[in-house]
Amino acid sequence: MTDTRTWQLSRTFRSSAGTVRWERLGPAGAEPVVLLHGTPFSSYVWREIAPALARRYQVFVWDMPGYGASEKRHGQDVSLAAQGRVFTELLTHWELARPAVVAHDFGGAVSLRAHLLHGVPYRRLALVDPVALAPWGTPFFRLVGEHAPVFEQLPPALHLGLVREYIRSASHRGLPDDVAEELVRPWSDEAGQAAFYRQIAQADQRYTDEIQDRYPGIDLPVTVCWGAEDTWIPVDRAHELTAAIPGGRLELIPDAGHLVPLDAPVRLHSALLDFLTAPE
């Protein structure tokens, strides 16, 4: 499943925000681990991590509504609030009462909202370069958000060039061409182009402001993994977030940017295994 040509999500779920594509890997009776991607990515960022974890765990991967292979449509609510609700619905659909959760970027905010606002219990929570603390959003991200209708009208070639460079900037080591193109592909057709700017336009900091003061009340094992060379969210946020969560532990991943799951999959997998197998 790690080949760029064979990463497929074969299962579907009708959520309140549209059809979600998802997949389960590993032994059915094993402890569950759910992986959440960020923006503007998809479950493909877990292409190395998911199969490795599946040797020991039952691993669930999914594309959020408006992302990857999941439904993209005009007027779709793809906000952090909507994604938190959808994640709650999915866990009920999967009948997972207390899974371990690993969340990257925007997925971090989604997992935190589901836990803190919707009362979803986790066994453990690993946050990988998460969107969690104000202020957030790169200058490019904010510029696009303020002028999304203009960017939606870009000629397709210019749009693809913009998306390609933006995604590549999340990596410190540099993405292989086939990997970069797989991350770009969901945004490459007409529906994808509109969806790309829609999700940025709906990215409102108020959705993390609503939960940020609740972090000191988190009562479960939490680890924060962070690319030491992250240029999208500075590493000082890693220390700030870890300090806000009681008992939180921090793992800095050297020679990795914001796209830690692709920049340093072996190192991240090792850190996640240590966390997932540690005594409670």
TrEMBL record:
Keyword terms of this UniProt record: Hydrolase
Annotated PANTHER family: HYDROLASE ALPHA/BETA FOLD FAMILY, PIMELOYL-[ACYL-CARRIER PROTEIN] METHYL ESTER ESTERASE
Pfam families tied to this protein: Abhydrolase_1
Transmembrane segments: none
Entry keyword annotation includes Magnesium: no
Domain annotation AB hydrolase-1: ranges: 32-265
SUPFAM superfamilies: alpha/beta-Hydrolases
One MF term in the entry's GO annotations: hydrolase activity
Organism: Streptomyces olivaceiscleroticus
Name of the protein this chain belongs to: Alpha/beta hydrolase
